[in-house]
Amino acid sequence: MVYHNLKALIKGIRSCKTVADERALIQQESAAIRASFREEDSFQRHNNIAKLLYIHMLGSPAHFGQIECLKLVASPRFSDKRLGYLGIMLLLDENQEVLTLVTNSLKNDMNHSNMYAVGLALCTFANIASEEMSRDLANEIEKLLGSSNTYIRKKAALCALRVVKKVPDIADHFTAKAKNLLTDRNHGVLLTAITLVTEMCQIDTPILDEFRTAVPLLVRNLKSLVTTGYSPEHDVSGITDPFLQVKILRLLRMLGKGDEQASETMNDILAQVATNTDSSKNVGNSILYETVLTVLEIEADTGLRVMAINILGKFLSNKDKNIRYVALNTLNKVVSMDTNAVQRHRNIILDCLRDGDISIRRRALELSYALINEQNVRILIRELLAFLEVADDEFKLGLTTQICLAAERFAPNKRWHIDTVLRVLKLAGNFVREEILSAFIRLVAHTPELQAYTASKLYLALKADISQESLTLAATWILGEYSEIIVQGGVVDDDQTVMISDKDLIDLVLSILDSPYANYLIRQFVLAAVTKIAARTTTSVPEQDRIAEILAKYTTSPELELQQRAVEFASLFTLGETRIGVLEQMPPPELKATVMGVVSENKPVGSTKGKEADLLGDEVLSTPAVGSAPQPAASAQSNQDLLAEIFGSSTSSPPPAQQQRSTVDDIMGLFGTTSAPGIQTPHPNAIPSSYPSTPASSFPTTAAAARAMSPPQPATATAPPQQRLTAYPAYEKNDLKITLTPQTSAAKPGVVMILARFQVSGGEAATGLSFQAAVPKSQQLQMLPMSNPNINPGAVETQQMRVVAPVGSNVRLRLRIAYSIAGQNFQEQVDFSGFPPGLTGTAS
Amino acid sequence: MAINYFLLVSRQGKLRLAKWFVTLSSKSKAKIVQEVSQLALNRRPRMCNFLEYKDRQIVYRRYASLLFICEIHEKDNELIALELMHRYVEVLDQYFGNVCEMDLIFNFQKAYAILDELIIGGEIQESSIATVLRTTQASDIWEENDDLKAAIQDAALA
Q1: Which domains does chain A have, with CATH numbers?
Q2: Complex ipTM more than 0.90, yes or no
Q3: Domain B3-157 is found in CATH 3.90.226.10
Q4: Which of A58, A537, A662, B143 could form a disulfide with A79 if both were Cys (CB 3.0 to 4.6 A apart)?
Q5: Alpha-carbon torsion A129, A135, A139, A143, what sign?
Q6: Interchain contact, B143 vs A187, CB within 8 Å
Q7: Is the CB of A60 inside 8 Å of chain B's CB atoms?
């Protein structure tokens, strides 16, 4: 049915039960309106447009009504004009061709005998006029600025604003008229005139200078608003026309900026507004806020400035959140001009970090970054770290970056700097930029005095939590690099030095591989780290063998980078003395001249790899020619190594050129001829040699490092047995093996991350594997997609799950597994409850 | 003080009025209406009346079942924007006499007409409630006179 008028249509649409019904009705009605337009039914036009505009608001297309609106506007009836102009404002904008057809109607109506018709035309013009239309009608507008009717004058002023915005070069056209308007007694006209003048001053400096003469006039206007008593027409909660006051203050700001004399003229009135405005309501504060902005931007005297900053300080402690928000926002703009004044409110600003409203937290955070300096860096970073602990995820990346940058810039000492970054890594290790991580590693490499300290801290942190990616990466790298320091010096936990064995350290680093958080990058870091650890004199032969085994396992890894590293590292193992040289501690990377943690080309990890690749390349080339001249470019030391290696591997007898203490042990160890397994007693000289470029005076000062200087103690495993990540078999049939590795974090009891691994033991690939799991109702399960549903022989595919279970309960899973091997389809269901109890923490 | 757009949205997220003072494609308008009203509707009571949408400053305020939303320029006074919004609500209230959402649905043209008397091109043009009311009602009378004239004409013809 077709609705005869707007009211009926609205009722019809509102009575629709479903969205589909509503859409069908609108479509039908649209079609009817279109048909009616085609019949040129001028009696129905008004009704049709009204209905169409309603449909348009509901989101349906209505462009076909544009021309009909033009026809309505041309009608002599006022009601037609009113609706027609509304339609034009809603359906047209400055970019549409049809708009040019409106120009003529606008021009006619601007000269209409009915002031309300003139008003409609002016309103439409001010809202949607294009550049072309602005040029065409600029003269009409200028004429109407001089109209004797305030209703027309105020609207014409905003039309002039549109012209000035669209065609800035004819702004001076309006200067004379605009000046007259500033003396107008009507508030509406004054409001719009000031808006126009503000815009004109913004786009043109000569105009701005010209209007400086109006400062005394504006001051008088403002003064009368502030001092006159109650005026019912313009009163808002006891304040006379706050809208006009704000407009005047804003224009004064532009006129006073950079001009001593103008600023001087407005000083008194600004002080008067600042002291006399009632600050108990929003409206008063809106004026105070505008006053503060003006005072801070003009050449105000010091007393006035202090007053302005104090107003903001009062705003900060206001109960109204809107006022606090505005204060933080404004202080953000002020902080670069007058940091000390803002510093005084530091505590309140920091309190705002804990506000329940994210808009306020965001503002407070921006402001606190700007407040950090040498004097308060300790306090502020402590606060920011406390905030980092509870911050919304969306803030974390910015926070970690800002904290680390500020630490780098203002750190009172290196120990504090390292502590700060360590804390960041622990609290938000999954939200750290790569640059920050490499800057940290660079810092540690450059601080030999604190390497033992840092390594010890990272050892403990990694043991407590391996779910923070950047923490894991930093710890893996540093433990790999400085393993001998930590094995010799022990770990300082709660002021107690606990000795750890090489096995403890390697267990910890390898446990990362089994963690569900281990990603591609982390695994690469781990392989490099254990390879380095294996090359240290503090690592016993059985442990070295174990590392060699792990590396061998990865030589078939389907992940290219891992496989390549494993193959390269494994063959390095056969190189004896060369390996020691290659895997020596990295020289500290070059420090970049720039202050901040910019990415350095010498990323520590990257350059390690480059060096190995070079030497391996040499080795491969020279293998066929036994005893050929070594590469001349190589250093003397590595020449010897290379020679030793080449002789060693080709004759399988002790190398003749053995010169160094550890060479024998290492090579014997590698060939399995030594009968001294177990813990090697490191040579005392080994320790100083790990600080090659450090003068004796700057030797380790921390307790742990000091102990490292004393004769080494036998490294007995005094550390508590470490919880290894264990893989539990869940399914093994038809050559398909599935194991589950659970991992928990003490910080989050009840959350168990489980890594499922899929392997085939036969020579056939399993394809189309689907692995589904279910948990009891009391638990929750999330699953990530599988790395690959097809499992090739030798490959290991993985899938991650996360179970949230009540603390103290056992994790039980029902698994449904479907796959096909060698053309045969299998589908099975098994129940798994093989995890040890207490995985979800102990109920307290 | 410059407003980029002014929206009126019901608690269910239905658009009741949309006035655009910046030129945008209908697609981006629809996107803004959807996203900004969701943001504002999701705010809890007693939070501040400001929020950020793509680095733009949004001021919103809730009146019964209706949400009044506007985007203002970065350097604008958020507090006076709230007052302006309230001014509009006051005029609506006096015009309709205890305005409710239904009034605005069935008389959306009037809601636009009143807004046009208060704000033009994103700038406030009149701070007096009485003047806005008076001019809107005067326009209404002109409209009714048209109908009257038409009726007289019809009668004369008949």
Answers
A1: 447-583 (no CATH), 728-832 (2.60.40.1230)
A2: yes
A3: no
A4: B143
A5: positive
A6: no
A7: no
